[in-house]
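Session log. Operator J.P. requested a structure for one protein chain; no other inputs attached. Running the standard single-chain path with token output.
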Amino acid sequence: MREIDTFSPHDGHIESVVIGVGQAKVSFQTWDCRELVLVFDEAAEVWSRAVLTDISNFTVAETEHGGLSYTFLDAWDEVPVLCIAAKSLKIYETGQAQREDTALFNVGTDYLGGQSAKT
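Structure written below.
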């Protein structure tokens, strides 16, 4: 697993969203099957319309409260499918796609009470 600065959201999809206390993790698969985990720290708000839909774009905008708003847009109609208000974002590349949620379990779920992947 390695931390990266940016990613291409085009034609990728959200596999899952896990919300913990003050943190949200998004498991994301790129168009070329790279598994990513996006970790949003000091998450204050999460809104989702759908997952497992193709994504056209990922935008970042400042909020009026000094945080950031991160938005994933649907590839077909350009409407938001996931919005997260948080202080910061870290992106980790965890490998190539193997199965749904592989990326999430590679980065860990300890803050959710020690859950682990079932094989």
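Operator note: Residues 102-107 form the longest helix (6 residues).
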